[in-house]
Amino acid sequence: MSERPGGTDPVVGVLGAGRAGTAFARVMLAAGIGVDICSTRPPKALRHHLKIYAPGAQAVWPAEVAVRTRHHGPGVVVLAVPQEELDEVDPQWVAGTEPSGVVLVDATNTWQDELLPGWLQAAVDEQLPTSMAIAGRFGGAGGAAVVKALNHISHHELEEAANPELPLGQRRAAALAGDDQDACARVMGLLVRMGFDPVRLGGLPAGKIMEPDGPLFHRPLRREDLLRYAR
Ligand SMILES: NC(=O)c1ccc[n+]([C@@H]2O[C@H](COP(=O)([O-])OP(=O)(O)OC[C@H]3O[C@@H](n4cnc5c(N)ncnc54)[C@H](OP(=O)(O)O)[C@@H]3O)[C@@H](O)[C@H]2O)c1
After folding, report:
1. Which positions ≥6 away from 185 have C-beta within 8 Å?
2. Is 89 in the pocket of ligand 1 (CB under 6 A)?
3. Helices 181-194 and 19-30 sit at what angle, rounded to 10 degrees?
4. Prior bond to 129 cis, omega within 30?
5. 28-65 pLDDT per residue, tens
6. Using CB atoms within 10 A as the burial measure, which of 20, 124, 130, 153 is most buried?
7. Which residues lie closer than 8 Å to 40 by C-beta, 6 or more apart?
8. Is 204 close to ligand 1, i.e. is its CB under 6 Å away?
């Protein structure tokens, strides 16, 4: 297990340390949220990458990504691994064990050239929201509650889009969709702290509208724009 410094800041886990995962980490760190982040690389190898792309984030093993947030945070892990790799992501890493269940924020998107795992391709073929398939794999009895969020803002824009200094009504809106009220409340709290104005569109099926071919994707929207899509 890797060493971690102590500290009183809340901690959030991030699965995936690429363009999206490190952008989420930078915004969270700037907002005073600690970040435990992992990739396919061992923590020692990941540390150099983090010095450049997410200074201050703590490199951990994937199996450790939910450990600190369970005890010192909102119990939230952000999934920022390409969908084509999701068969390699073990649901046990984020399983909802005591003392509190973990919320998995599904920040992933489907890109046309991706060769998806069969369980995910089946959902795409049926035009179901991919978050529902992800909830089927990572949720269920003893699993994490899944909330779709953070997928519709590009990593290029994320830091500029997030502004915790602004009053809520003047911030960029961030959509979320999820079935579990407590899980959605935790994710809304995180989005507020990151500097967004969160709008819950509805249960997980509402996440379909947040996908790349939908009207929200990469568009700088405000609360009133998102409310038109809320169910
Ligand atoms: N890029 C964006 O602007 C953006 C914004 C919102 C959402 N998204 C979505 O977020 C997801 C990731 O996109 P990205 O652009 O960040 O991809 P990326 O730059 O290719 O990064 C992918 C990351 O996932 C890690 N990874 C792959 N397999 C893994 C595994 N089995 N266990 C742990 N980590 C694993 C990779 O590890 P290594 O570093 O060790 O290779 C890498 O750090 C996609 O679904 C994308 O649609 C992207």
Report:
1. none
2. yes
3. 70
4. no
5. 999 999 999 999 999 999 999 999 999 999 999 999 99
6. 153
7. 88
8. no
174-189 burial, b if ≥16 CB within 10 A, otherwise e? Answer: bbbbbbbeebbbbbbe
Whether residue 6 has pLDDT greater than 60 = no
**Residue 113: predicted pLDDT:** 84
Q: How confident is the model at residue 2 (pLDDT cuts 50, 70, 90)?
A: very low
Pairing type for strands 145-149 and 173-178 reads antiparallel
Identify the residue whose C-alpha is closest to ligand 1 atom 33. Answer: 39
Residue from 39, 104, 130, 156 to probe ligand 1 pocket by mutation (most atoms less than 8 Å from CB)? 39
Q: Are 42 and 69 in contact (CB under 8 A)?
A: no
Query: Alpha carbon of 11 to those of 28, 48, 68, 72, 221: distances in Å?
Result: 9, 21, 6, 6, 28
Most informative mutation of 27, 81, 130 for ligand 1 (most atoms within 8 A of CB): 81
Could you say which DSSP state residue 70 is in?
H
> Which DSSP string corresponds to 102-147?
PEEEE-----TT----HHHHHHHHTT--HHHHHHHHH-STTS-EEE
Report all structural domains of the chain as residue ranges with CATH numbers, in order of start. 11-227 (3.40.50.720)
Q: Is the CB of 34 under 6 A from ligand 1?
A: no
99 pLDDT band, cuts 50/70/90, is low
Distance CA 98, CA 78 (A): 19
